[in-house]
Amino acid sequence: MEFDLFHWTTLLLFVAAFGAGFVDSVAGGGGLIQVPALFAIYPNANPATLLGTNKLGSIGGTLIAAKRYLNVVKLPYFIVIPAIIAAFIGSFSGAAVVKSMSADVFRVLLPIILIALLVYTIKQPSMGMAHAPVVDGRKKIVHAALLGGTIGFYDGFFGPGTGSFLLIGFIRIFGFDFLHASAATKLVNVTTNFAAILLFASFGHIAWQIGFAMMAMNIAGSIFGSHYALRHGNTFIRKVFVGAVAALILKTVFDALRYFGVIA
Question: What is the pTM of this model?
Answer without folding.
Answer: 0.84
